[in-house]
Amino acid sequence: MAHSGAYRLLRDTISGLDRVLRTDVDSPKVVLVIGPPGSMKTSFCFSVMSKHLSSTDQIGMYLTLEENADSHMKNMKSIGVSFTNNVVIADFTDIRELEEVGNEDSPDYIMLIEKLVRNFRQKHGKSFTMLAIDSLGALYSLMDDSVSVRKSMYHFFKNMRDMGLFTMLIMEGSVSEGKFYSGSEAFLSDGVVYLGMDSTKGKITRFVQVGKMRACEHSMERHAVEIGKSGLQVLGPLLSN
Ligand SMILES: Nc1ncnc2c1ncn2[C@@H]1O[C@H](COP(=O)(O)OP(=O)(O)OP(=O)(O)O)[C@@H](O)[C@H]1O
Ligand SMILES: [Mg+2]
Fold first, then answer.
1. Does position 33 have pLDDT exceeding 50, yes or no?
2. Which of the listed CATH numbers 3.90.76.10, 3.40.50.720, 3.40.50.300, 3.40.50.2300 matches domain 25-195?
3. Which alpha helices (H) appear in 125-181, and where do they start and end?
4. Is the dihedral of CA 71, 140, 212, 215 positive or negative?
5. What is the mean pLDDT of residues 187-206?
6. Whose alpha carbon is nearest atom 19 of ligand 1?
7. In which band, very low, low, confident or very high, does the pLDDT at 186 lie, cut at 50, 70 and 90?
8. Least packed by Cβ within 10 Å: which of 22, 73, 104, 198?
9. 143 ligand 1 Cβ < 6 A
10. What pTM did the predictor assign?
C-alpha cells in the first residue's frame, strides 16, 4: 500500500512483502540479499529499487558486475520487472572508464566502486539515495586477498551509510539447510534477506526469509515467492517449515 503517494522502501515495492516486514524500513542501511543461483536475487533487488524510486524524484545506481547492462535489462524484461528512468544501470565498463584503472595487476575494485559511487553522488547530490551491487561474489573473484578484502568491506559499508544510501548487496550462498549465512558481511550489515528454494514432494517453491533487519519488526518465517504477471509476488508462509 502506498504511503504519502510513495512506495515505501522494501515493504511496498514487491506485492505481499509487507507480510514479512511489518514495520517500515528506513534509510541509510546496508542489506545483504543472499541466495543460490537462479533464486531471483537480481529480480528482487532491481524490483525493490525501481518500484521505490519510480514514486519519488530520487535516483539510484544498479551496478551489475556479472553481466553487462544490456543483458541485465533483457533478463529483467523477461521477468516482467518494470523500469524507471530513476534507476541508472552501471556495469564493468563504467569501472574501467575511471582514470585510476592503470596497469596494476590487481586493482582495488572496492576502492574503484567507491569512487564510482562518489562521482555519482557529486553529479546527483542528495537525490541519489539507492545503490545495488550485483554481486559481491563477482567482485571478490576479481580480487586476490580475501582477508584485506573483507576488512575494506567494513569501511565500504560505513561509507555507504555515511552517504545516506540504502544499499543492497547481492551474495551467492545456499540457505537450503536452514542455516543462516554467518559470514562477516552478515554481521556488518543492517539487514539480511534470504532467497531460496524449498523442495518438497518433488515441487520446488521459491521463498523469501528475513534473517535480520535492524529497527524493523519482521517475520522470521519463509514466505513463498511467485512470478506473477507484473513481476515478483510474496505469498503466505511455507507450511512445511
Ligand atoms: N518469465 C519468467 N517467468 C518465470 N520465471 C522466470 C522468467 N524469467 C526468468 N525466470 C526465472 O528467474 C530466474 C532468474 O532470476 P534472477 O536472474 O533474478 O535470479 P538470480 O538469483 O539473480 O540468478 P543468478 O544466480 O543467475 O544471478 C531464472 O533462472 C528463471 O528460473
Ligand atoms: Mg543475478
1. yes
2. 3.40.50.300
3. 136-141, 146-162
4. negative
5. 90
6. 40
7. confident
8. 104
9. no
10. 0.94
